[in-house]
């Protein structure tokens, strides 16, 4: 398995030239890196004007590995080749390194880059990426991988310290300024008296530099400073190391890398809908920074949020008066760590009455609104306290809990709520304080605990009777001034006292069922299943040419091919019989086929857009400007892996891909809309479907790109 690393952008608040002078002091040896024994220059090139300096070194490393492993490998030292390409004119340094020792067994590649900060030319940015691929190593592949990762992460931590160490050393030597590179006088005179473009330096193979054959100094400078082509480090979507520490906390280098890589993947597949960094980090923490597992549950959660419009719950949903009067819970200041504090007087709550009066769905929606408010309060407290706060504390008072609370439908509702919250709000509970637990509590705990994640259970602190008043109790976590009055504190707690819900507010099962259906079908999106050999199709009738068909869909499972067809013939409506040939009903969504099998492509209908292959987890938005009136058919078809043209045997990649698909079934969630061309501005921000963006979890990002063709697809 290939291990990859991607660093955040690290910023030195010093000019590029000063950083380069400090960097050069690392060679030929560096006392701060004991494993770096020596380095020899094997190749060097300098341009005539001094702008380009390429140096290749062979570095000798003493890896901290068991003596037995070194003896088996037959080496005491490991050699790496490092190539530094410095462009003083563009103020960039690109570093490439690879292993020379055991290169047929282990492949290590590293790329580093120093550039000028895009917003401050007196600051310097640094980025680093690397990959490790161990093919074989005498049966010690796992051991070598652990040693390599340990050594690499320790050196990453030292990287910034080393530069700062040499900067301080230079300051002690009286060096606090290094002038920028300027063309020699001879070249200035030649350029001012000659109108013939001539190269300053011969063309050489330097990765990612702006030096091009046939460009003079002025042309190179203009190319590198063009606003339409930002230099390395300028994109706004890159994470800064200082930002991570300030808003996300202290992460290890590998944890930073996981966050950046998952974030990059989301940017590629969910343009305009990127969750905030702290939310991505929660899912990574919930899966111990396993990117594949975190990506899976995050995509499921994003689809769930979009389908049920959870992002707008605080703005669009008003809790029923019954909840406001009888739900004994509310926000109450913060704990000693700055986390928002939520108080729940569960023992005073009539769970049976609330379920009978409102149903499960209303209770679930109310709990979701509490969690959304918790996310908002975490952001506010992060700004107020000047440190990252990503979770809240919950104080649960169980005084009054009895067998009445173990009513089976009530427990069922509680378990469902826990399941939904665990799946979509991981790592949001920082601490749970359970106070005045009665003798019946172990029964409730036995029912509930299997549905709670192990990491979450570790955050539970349970106090029986008045134990919370003693040492190690409530005062260790909450300031005395804000302990609620009902817990013998001095602070008035503005939380409803609960009590019995009047039976006059109870509703019948039929009324609750209809209300529950209404709550969770308030979505503009539809679900569909796509089977191998059975695509899902919808048709849109266009009366006026130049209308705009827009779509927004998510591929929830499997890979699909998206097609758009035009037909003058009326597609046959699907049969109502679920066993018919045109319509298949499944639990995961409907499947409808409109294109008759006797229709011929090119005669009865025609393709108006090139097929678009969409991978699992991708979110796709696009539009098509219609040229003719008639019927347009949008089709989602199962994507079959192409067979190899030269042999009848399947390819290895095809076999591996097929093993990952449990069945020949895909799921999509889609929304379409037709608008007049005069109202379409070429941006998804003009569509109702753009409201599916994650307003609470997303930064202010949009994917508005004007298309010059008749269709626009953004992924």
UniProtKB/TrEMBL annotation:
Its main location: cytoplasm. Signal peptide: none annotated. It is found in: Cytoplasm; Golgi apparatus. GO terms for molecular function: protein sequestering activity; RIG-I binding. Residues 319-495 form the CRAL-TRIO domain. Keywords: Cytoplasm, Golgi apparatus, Immunity, Innate immunity, Phosphoprotein, Signal transduction inhibitor. Residues 521-674 form the GOLD domain. GO terms for biological process: choline transport; cytoplasmic pattern recognition receptor signaling pathway; innate immune response; negative regulation of RIG-I signaling pathway. Pfam families: CRAL_TRIO, CRAL_TRIO_N, PRELI. One of its GO terms (cellular component) is nucleoplasm. Residues 3-175 form the PRELI/MSF1 domain. CDD domains: SEC14. Interacts with RIGI (via tandem CARD domain); the interaction is direct. Interacts (via GOLD domain) with SLC18A3; the interaction is direct. Interacts with SLC5A7 (via GOLD domain); the interaction is direct. May play a role in innate immunity by inhibiting the antiviral RIG-I signaling pathway. In this pathway, functions as a negative regulator of RIGI, the cytoplasmic sensor of viral nucleic acids. Prevents the interaction of RIGI with MAVS/IPS1, an important step in signal propagation. May also regulate the SLC18A3 and SLC5A7 cholinergic transporters. This is SEC14-like protein 1. It comes from Terrapene triunguis.
């Amino acid at each position: 398995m290939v291990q990859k690393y991607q660093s955040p952008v690290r910023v030195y608040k010093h000019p590029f030239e000063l950083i380069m002078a400090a960097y050069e002091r690392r060679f030929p040896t560096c006392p701060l890196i004991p494993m770096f024994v020596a380095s020899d220059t094997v190749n060097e090139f300098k341009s005539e004007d001094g702008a380009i300096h390429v140096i290749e070194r062979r570095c000798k490393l003493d890896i901290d590995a068991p003596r037995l492993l070194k003896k088996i490998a037959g080496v005491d030292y490991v050699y790496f080749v490092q190539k530094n390409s410095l462009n003083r004119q563009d103020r960039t340094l690109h570093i490439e390194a690879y292993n020379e020792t055991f290169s047929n067994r282990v492949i290590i590649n590293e790329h580093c880059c120093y550039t000028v900060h895009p917003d401050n030319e007196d600051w310097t940015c640094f980025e680093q990426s690397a990959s490790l691929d161990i093919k074989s190593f005498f049966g010690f592949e796992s051991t070598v991988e652990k040693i390599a990762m340990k050594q690499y992460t320790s050196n990453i931590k030292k990287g910034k310290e080393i530069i700062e160490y040499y900067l301080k050393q230079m300051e002690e030597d009286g060096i606090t300024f290094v002038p920028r590179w300027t063309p020699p006088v001879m070249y200035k005179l030649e350029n001012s008296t000659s109108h013939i473009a001539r190269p300053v330096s011969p063309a050489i193979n330097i990765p990612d530099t702006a030096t091009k054959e046939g460009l003079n100094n002025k042309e190179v400078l203009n190319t590198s400073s063009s606003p339409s082509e930002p230099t390395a480090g300028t994109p706004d979507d890159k994470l800064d190391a200082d930002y991570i520490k300030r808003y996300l906390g202290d992460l290890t280098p590998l944890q930073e890398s996981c966050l950046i890589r998952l974030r990059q993947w989301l940017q590629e597949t969910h343009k305009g809908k990127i969750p905030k960094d702290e939310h991505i980090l929660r899912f990574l923490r919930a899966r111990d920074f396993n990117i594949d597992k975190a990506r899976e549950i995050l995509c499921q959660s994003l689809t769930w949020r979009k389908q049920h419009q959870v992002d707008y719950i605080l703005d669009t949903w008003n809790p029923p008066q019954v909840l406001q009067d009888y739900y004994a819970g509310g926000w109450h200041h913060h704990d000693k760590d700055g986390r928002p504090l939520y108080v729940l007087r569960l023992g005073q709550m009539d769970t049976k009455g609330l379920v009978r009066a409102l149903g499960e769905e209303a209770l679930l929606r109310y709990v979701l609104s509490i969690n959304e408010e918790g996310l908002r309060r975490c952001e506010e407290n992060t700004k107020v306290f000047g440190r990252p706060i990503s979770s809240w504390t919950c104080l649960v008072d169980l005084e009054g809990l009895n067998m009445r609370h173990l009513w089976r439908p009530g427990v069922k509702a509680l378990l469902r709520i826990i399941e939904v919250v665990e799946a979509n709000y991981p790592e949001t509970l920082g601490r749970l304080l359970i106070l005045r637990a009665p003798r019946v509590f172990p029964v409730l705990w036995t029912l509930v605990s299997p549905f709670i994640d192990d990491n979450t259970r570790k955050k539970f602190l349970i106090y029986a009777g008045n134990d919370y008043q003693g040492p190690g109790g409530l005062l260790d976590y909450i300031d005395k001034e804000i302990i609620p009055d009902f817990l013998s504190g001095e602070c008035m707690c503005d939380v409803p006292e609960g009590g019995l819900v009047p039976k006059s507010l109870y509703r019948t099962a039929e009324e609750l069922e209809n209300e529950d259906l209404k709550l969770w079908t308030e979505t503009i999106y539809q679900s569909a299943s796509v089977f191998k050999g059975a695509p899902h199709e919808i048709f849109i009738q266009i009366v006026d040419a130049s209308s705009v068909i827009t779509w927004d869909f998510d591929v929830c499972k499997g890979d699909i091919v998206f097609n758009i067809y035009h037909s003058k013939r009326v597609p046959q409506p699907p049969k109502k019989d679920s066993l018919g040939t045109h319509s298949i009903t499944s639990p995961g969504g409907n499947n409808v086929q409109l294109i008759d099998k006797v229709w011929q492509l090119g005669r009865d209908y025609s393709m108006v857009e090139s097929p678009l292959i969409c991978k699992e987890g991708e979110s796709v938005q696009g539009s098509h400007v219609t040229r003719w009136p008639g019927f347009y058919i949008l089709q989602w078809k199962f994507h079959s892996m192409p067979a190899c043209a030269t042999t009848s045997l399947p390819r290895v990649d095809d076999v591996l891909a097929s093993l990952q698909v449990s069945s020949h079934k895909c799921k999509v969630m889609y929304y379409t809309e037709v608008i007049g061309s005069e109202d379409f501005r070429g941006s998804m921000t003009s569509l109702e479907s753009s409201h599916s963006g994650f307003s609470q979890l997303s930064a202010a990002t949009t994917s508005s790109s004007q298309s010059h063709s008749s269709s626009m697809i953004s992924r």
